[in-house]
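Lab manual, section 2.4: Encoding a predicted structure.

Procedure: take the sequence of the chain (180 residues), apply the prediction step described in section 2.3, and record the output as structure tokens. A sample record is shown.
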Amino acid sequence: MELSKVIEKRKAVRALEPVEITDDFIHEIAYKASRAASCANKQPWRFVFVRDSKKLLELHEALSSGNYWAKEASMLIAIYSRKDFDCIVGDREYFLFGTGMATAHLMLAVVDSGLVAHAMAGFDENLAKKILDIPEDMTLITLIAVGKQSENLSRLSDKHKEVETKRSTRKEFNEFAVIL
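Recorded output:
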């Protein structure tokens, strides 16, 4: 798919249905994420791809109640890093920026394949790290739900049903950018 179409297609979809997640698919999206730019090519990102049904059930316990819908995802991806994995220039730490760039690449690769990638902030970081054996000194930045978009909205709350089929509004150019 053309990049501009992939960017337009990406949306925070919550209505999911099961889909097979293969090793090849995981390797492909990880490769595309690995092509992201990073300070001095440090590549600070770390991913845990969770598709095992028992491990997914464990990880569901770390989700906030508002992310109930993510329990339908076929895979959850944990994205983490640590500040010393990347450049530190003065008091500027680049690990979140670099990892964010790789995360965007990863999400767009998932969308390009025809699936949904929905990043979440609502989870218990310490519990998720314990479940996934992520060292305590790491920062678990986000969890991403991956699945196939479903037309069936019956499992969603009324609030989520309302926003599921609409495109969220975006700020106008002059609200986030300046041309000098």
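Check your result against the sample. The longest strand covers residues 139-149.
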